[in-house]
Amino acid sequence: MPRTFPFLLLMLLVATSCGFLRNGPPPPRDNAQADPQQTVDTPKPTPTSTEFVLTSPDVVEAGNLPAEYTCDGASATLPLAWKNVPSGTTSFAIVMHHIPGPGDSHWYWVLYNIPASVTALAKNSQGVGTLGTNSVNDRTEYSPPCSKGPGAKDYTYTVYALASAPEFTVAPDAVDRDTLLAAIADRTLGSATLNIVYSR
Fold first, then answer.
1. How far apart are CA 56 and CA 47, in angstroms?
2. Among 14, 69, 188, 190, which residue's CB has the most CB atoms within a 10 Å radius?
């Protein structure tokens, strides 16, 4: 065997060792490192809503109105609560109405002069605000829904935040839904609705 071969082999081993020592061994793979193709879902905080909202502890939006609040039950008024009131509100008004068809509307509850300090009404609440008339018997009282036909009907509760109290040119016992809406048109700071369904 030529003498140059062991010499070349020795040089090769020395060169390889020097490169290993200079560069160091390859870094170990971090098993905890996330794969770049994988994504981690980070929970996002739920934003705090500042929207003026109207709710009820007894029915949710688009929910079925319990019979207790209709003519099939105790004819009670629905408990309501509202929050995130617009700045500058001095009083509230509430209307419950139903639109059976184009150009037609029925209303069951008209209540105004609710103090700004009031942000909820209990079931069968009395002594708060001033009652307007309903379209069922034209009396200044709440009249419960009492659909004459089968099937589901949509009803809407609306609370209005007012910058000032409404003024009327008619007697209190003549204030119906249209009269109230006309009186508050120029002083409504905001409104919130709760839509429900009543089926017989």
1. 22
2. 69
Report the candidate in 55, 172, 152, 52 with the shortest Cα–Cα distance to residue 112.
172
State pLDDT tens for residues 171-195: 999 999 999 999 999 999 999 999 9
Could you give the dihedral angle defined by the CA atoms of residues 69, 70, 73 and 74, in that order, rounded to the nearest 10 degrees?
50
Return the closest-CA partner of residue 197 out of 77, 86, 69: 69
| Sign of torsion over alpha carbons 197, 143, 58, 177 | positive
| Side-chain-facing half-sphere of 93: CA atoms under 13 Å | 27
Q: How far is CA 92 from CA 75, 95, 116, 166, in A?
A: 23, 10, 6, 10
What domains are defined for the chain?
A: 53-199 (3.90.280.10)
- Other beta carbons within 10 angstroms of residue 101's beta carbon come to 6
Q: What is the pTM of this model?
A: 0.75
57, 81 Cβ separation under 8 angstroms = yes
Measured CA to CA, the distance from residue 160 to residue 68 in angstroms comes to 25
| Contact indicator for 196, 155 with CB cutoff of 8 Å | yes
E strand or H helix at 8: helix 4-23
Q: How far from chain centre, in Å, is Cα 25?
A: 60
Taking residues 138-160, report their average pLDDT: 93
pLDDT for 28? 52
